[in-house]
Specification:
This protein has two domains: about 5-180, 3-Layer(aba) Sandwich (Rossmann fold); about 190-400, CoaB-like (Rossmann fold, 3-Layer(aba) Sandwich), CATH 3.40.50. Helix content is about 35%, strand content about 25%. It contains 14 helices and 22 strands. It has an eight-stranded mixed beta sheet with strand order 13-12-9-14-17-18-20-21, sandwiched between helices. Strands 3-2-1-4-5-6 form a six-stranded parallel beta sheet, with helices on both faces. Strands 7-8 form a two-stranded antiparallel ribbon. The protein is globular.
Length: about 400
């Protein structure tokens, strides 16, 4: 970690004293720390003690003319390799989850373009409260990393989860978070779609498909592991999001398109979602019921937006656009035609007539403008890693 830098936000809580040891432990490993001390945090540790250990000034006020002239809060939030919040209070977590910013700490958290690692510390009842649980779930979906909290006796005398992780535990989590940086795709932004879309027919029915999202989630995980800043736009699936990935949940094809366009520009787009080709032209406001006359209602369908084709033709087109073709017959000819028709650079094709959707293994073909490469059957995680290797080689070849 030598040569790395961390922005440490010290929240208000008795565990703030551990932040002083954390700074010292990071310094031992050659990590430079700048610190933001919240007003509540200053009730537990002094700016002088933090400044002495960081060998730098401590930032406290959002509207400090001196601080803003020397290093504005935007630059402060982006100059480090990682933002660490320790202790992360319910207040700081709730503000970031809700997009609120009324002091230097919360503003820096919203303004940063770096990963955020939080070390929660609070009373066990607070940690288990529905509101804090919602904040934690939201932050995890947004790609925020967590270390702790640990079980143990609280300063208030209660026992349970809520104790801030020990400094060396936080150092290990920082080291793990920073390992992702410096990968082959460091500095690249990747956009991945996964899962099915659901197109409502009425409040209780929808059109969808059998996609599990497993392949797309594995690809997002592999891209993040290679260092790419990865956004995963996912339809409704029952899979935990990969670590270090920003998750955007959607339901319909139109929502997925809007979410993808909102994340442009990007360097890499891997469109693995099984987007519904059609949707009912009118979604009924009430459940469509049988009326006893045995008449089957007519459902008129209309075409959904073609997300792959639209991104491939977008004014902010990613440098590499990879589509997926799920076929049941004539896999290679149909996939090759799809690549040309949609304007994609590559197509990953597979035969879904067997137990692929929902399964853990896949056999695919990588089709480019100049080649068709058939891969042996392997796990979906291995397919993802192999695809990311090809993506890495593509950009290394472009650079040379």
């Amino acid at each position: 970690m030598r040569g790395k830098s961390v922005l440490l936000i010290i929240g208000g809580g008795i565990a703030a004293y551990k932040s002083l040891d954390l700074i010292r432990r990071l310094a031992e490993r050659g990590v430079k720390t700048r610190a933001i001390l919240t007003r509540a945090g200053a009730e537990f540790v002094t700016p002088l003690s933090v400044s002495a250990l960081t060998a730098d000034k401590v930032y406290c006020e959002l509207f400090s003319l001196t601080d803003e002239s020397e290093m504005g809060h935007i630059e402060l939030s982006r100059a480090a390799d990682l933002v660490v919040v320790a202790p992360a209070t319910a207040d700081l977590m709730g503000k970031l989850a809700a997009g609120l910013a009324n002091d230097l700490a919360s503003t820096a958290l919203l303004a940063t373009d770096k990963r955020i690692l939080m070390a929660p510390a609070m009373n066990v009842r607070m940690w288990q409260s529905p509101s804090v649980c919602r904040s934690t779930e939201t932050l995890a979906r947004d790609g925020v990393l967590f270390v702790g909290p640990n079980d143990g006796e609280m300063a208030c005398g209660e026992f349970g989860p809520g104790r801030m992780a020990e400094p060396l535990e936080i150092v290990a989590a920082i080291e793990q978070a920073l390992k992702i940086r410096g990968g082959a795709l460091d500095g690249f932004k990747a956009l991945v779609t996964a899962g099915p879309t659901q197109e409502p027919l009425d409040p209780v029915r929808f059109l969808a498909n059998r996609s599990s999202g497993k392949q797309g989630y594995a690809i997002a995980d592999a891209l993040a592991g290679a260092g790419a800043d990865t956004v995963l736009v996912s339809g409704p699936v029952e899979i935990a999001p990969p670590p270090h990935v920003k998750l955007v949940k959607v339901t319909t094809a139109r929502e997925m398109l809007a979410a993808c366009e909102a994340e442009l520009p990007a360097d890499i787009a891997v469109m693995s979602a099984a987007v519904a080709d059609w949707r009912p032209d009118i979604a009924a406001n009430n459940k469509i019921k049988k009326n006893g006359d045995h008449q089957v209602p007519t459902i008129r369908l209309m075409e959904n937006p073609d997300i792959l084709a639209l991104l491939a033709a977008h004014k902010s087109r990613p440098r590499l656009v990879v589509g997926f073709a799920a076929e049941t017959d004539d896999v290679l000819p149909h996939a090759a035609a799809k690549r040309t028709r949609k304007g994609a650079d590559w197509i990953v094709a597979n035969d879904v007539s067997g137990n692929v959707m929902g399964g853990d293994r896949n056999q695919v073909h990588l089709i480019t403008a100049s080649s068709q490469d058939s891969w042996p059957e392997m796990s979906k995680a291995d397919v993802a890693r192999r695809l990311v290797q090809h993506i890495t080689q593509h950009f290394q070849g472009t650079a040379s």
